[in-house]
Amino acid sequence: MHIHAYEKLWLAASVLLILFLLGSVTYGAVGPGIAMVSDSEQAIDPGALDEDQRFSEPRVEQVGENEYAAYVVARQFRFQPDPIVVPEDSTVTFYVTSADVIHGFEIAGTNANTMVVPGEVSEITVETDDPAEYGLICNEYCGLAHHGMEGKVNVVSQSEFENRTNGGDGE
Amino acid sequence: MGRNETAHAPAEDVSGDTEEFDPIGTLTLIGIYFVILVLSWVYIYYIEFLGRDLIVVG
Amino acid sequence: MSEAIEAERTFVDKFPEEARVVRAALLGSFLALTLGAIFGIIQTLHRTGIFRGLISSTDYYTSLTAHGVFLALSFTTFFLVGLFTWAVVRSLDRPLIDIRITWTWYGLMAAGMTMTGVSILAGFVDSIDMSADVLFTFYAPLQAHPMFYAGLAVFIVGSWIAGADWFRTWLAWKREHPDERIPLQTFMVLTTMAMWYIASSAVAASVLIFLLPWSLGFIDQVNPTLTRTLFWFFGHPVVYFWLMPAYLLWYTVLPKVAGGRLFSDPLARVVFVLFLLLSTPVGIHHQYLDPGIAEGFKFISMTNTMFLLLPSLLTAFTVVASVEYGARQRGGSGLLGWLTDLPWRKPEFTGMMLAGLMFAAGGFSGMVNAGMNINYMIHNTIWVPGHFHLTVGTAVALTFMAATYWLWPQITNKPVYSRAIGLFQVVLWFIGMALMSNAMHAQGIMGVPRRTAEPEYSGFEYATMFGGFEELNIQIAIGGTLLFVSTVLFIGNLVLTMGNPKVSGLAETLPPALSGPDDAPRVLDNLGLWVGIAVTLVVLAYALPLAAIINRGGLLGPGVGTYPVWLASAFDVIANSAPPLLDAFGEVVEVIR
Asked: Of residues C106, C240, C263, C349, which has the active-site annotation?
């Protein structure tokens, strides 16, 4: 089959481009260590969140030295807890599930973003920096009042976190 | 039969033309596109994406 | 019959029955385009806050469902079946095997789309207890009226019969031409439909086995991750179902319109085979941020997706080279000077060229979407609609409109009413889309979500990046308005064309490729082989993930409820949210005290 030399050149360049894109994503996984949302958590019964130790009381709590867990429930049409308050310069793992339909969990303007599926728990770990206030958006259509579904994620100083949360309970 | 791209085979052999036509303009345009793609990707991935808050590391 | 008289006969002269089907299909397509465009302008003004007086924000989701289904399913598929009928009959130079079967599949498609359309539009009418505010993707456990799902099933079955119609016609031709290569246009149709059978099987299964029985009350619940995954099994290849007809036009008609010839027939075949192989085993890239699916499966999907860039990148070269050939034939010279020696006054030419140019930009945002971890940045933001308005919204839609200026005279013997309006309309589309899509990409990077009636929130402000949120909203509204005006001009021009008297002398033939089918290895025509490999790749990509999903949550789901998006239930939900909200308010009051 005759392929013109220029087109062969373009074919080679295209393959290199594809490898470069794949390589970039791989670098992101290996260098900065970006991990994808996955099936790391067990499936859950969305009708029985009250009986789940994590989600019966949505909260932020300390689980290690400078490590925190945020147990978040998304439902039509709000997030619990709201606001989600976490301390600065720490490692925070969000565990997010839905009590009803599929939602989204997007900390606006950042890379913290995940689907929230009833029956599943999304687990994402991030490292907080300086104190900041972020908007929390449900970015998956979840019903007729979807546009009103918002929350806040507030990164506060260590002292403010301790005062506010009385040793670990959220809102 | 006519020079249509139909079931009837074309009367003359046309592959001779391919040897004479070098799409240098196409190569140039697509080369420019390639450069734009690479630069745009470097910006969007390494600067924009890796530069923002709350990267998911676990 | 002498060659001269042969050349004078248009498609409708030679195949009047088939031409009638093609016209009916195109008109169905443009009806969908008109409805979709009306919802588009309503949405663009509502969402950006320019004018929210026409519909309520809850009705916005009805509009959005209609916009998505009518444009991304009805407009595209009806155009495809019309175009493919023309292409098969033209390239095989014979009529379809049985025109009654043809009208049957057309009728099924029309009936199915009407059923689904009615179920969606009923959502605007409070007194009718029927709605389908579930959007184009209809994710469970949001639930639509049963007629929504039933209509989709009927529509898809209609498309399957259309494919069978063309396969059987080709087989009849093959019996009479046993050693000939499959003519290129028919080859493109057959590979596209083979891809479609594989792709649509999963969503048909999801609808018929789970979603329809569930909406009828025969089963209590469905597994959201499973039905989502089956949807995206279909949801990615459907974009190639939209693109491949556009590529057919770029490869076989655009060179003619440019005064050139297709640079390489064999490469065009390779491209279509690559789409058959790679379009389907990639759907999980729409689920990069799904819990319940392992990272390994997502990585495999990414690799397949990145290689799926290859046929599009090759197409760019081949198509531009074909046009360059035409320009140089007309006397064009210089490295880039030949660009001026092209028929830019022809709306069919300029429209397709602008569509291709815009597709190049859409290809970039597609590369970003294909990246696994960079998906965190743009998933479910308005970047995504920014991307697909460049691709299906322009590469496909604008190509379809441009091609109509060339094709309609072939199937009616009527000249276009105004080529000047046609040219203005395609350029206006390009400008409008450039404004709108660019602003959507910028807002997406700021984190502005897609699929929402009101993207502003009370608790926070978006960071200003490539412009402020409000300015970008205005840009979206202006772009969207220009698109709407362009659509009105297109439809108006077509309606006036239909009123023109018939003339003779409009026949156009398509020139042979520079490197013809005989230069293509015979193995390319071995459809059975390619289908076999395609199915294998799909099984490899999906067997384990699907098994894992079913294992985790069960075939029918892990205790998930049902959430009909019907008015009555919406009120219930709001009522049920009230006690917890009051509790929360009470706690806040406690804390303050």
From this structure: C240
